[in-house]
Amino acid sequence: MSGWDGRVSGVKPRPWRVGSRTLGVTQDGNPLPLIMGILNVTPDSFHDGGRYATLESALRRAEELLAAGADILDIGGESSRPGAESVDEAVELARTRPVVAAVVKAFGCVVSIDTVKSGVARAALDEGALILNDISALTFDPMMLELPQRYGAGVVLNHMLGTPRTMQAAPHYGDVVAEVRDYLMGRIQLLAALGVPKDRIAVDPGIGFGKRLADNYRLVNEMESLDVLGCPILMGMSRKSFIGKTAGLETSDRLIPSVALAVLSALKGASILRVHDVRETREALAMVGAVLG
The pTM is what? Predict the structure, then answer.
């Protein structure tokens, strides 16, 4: 593909500046959706917990994801599945720092650190990570706010109600799209006041993070409404439980529905697709892109 131009909504992917790199633009200047491959080095993540908990297995998985076409590797050491408890910072550091360092050294790829703790984030950025992916939108740890500007890092602002332990207790919205958009706008404005421009900020509506089934559907269906924020849009729906709550998909392994959601998001102009299944997503995008020309 030479580019992807938001064929469903008219919204186009936006470039994302992380460190000294600008991601998501081809040599001819056309924007493309980026694929962020998920690498959880945790014992308890909902889909792949325990599979890549050693340095050796994590490095093998990183190599697989990159060979499959991942543009970014998102490394996380604490599960954010519904009901998950927080882990001690020292434990999360021990899980993530060696992996980040080894992946950057071995592959020189773009690495994102998935954490809500400034100590974990700082260590990863010191080891060469270029992106800070915080599911709390930099609210759980106030020290997070100083890191994007200090390191020149890209940042992902995610919308969530409560914490992973409480977020699905009783979520409620009057207008979920407007409320998510307004919340993210407030966080963008705060970062702007700290010197972080919009082209370094990706916004994530937080599918499954304190959302009812209908809320998830609506946020996907109206994803393009977030484009007014002026930032790249990240969509992370891979293998999530709302897929299994969809009529007819109760026994699905969620792979095919996840790829379908990724393609739909790309057609609507998403800039980043956060997925477990990189090869399948890349092939689906290539096929649709070839047909669209």
Answer: 0.93
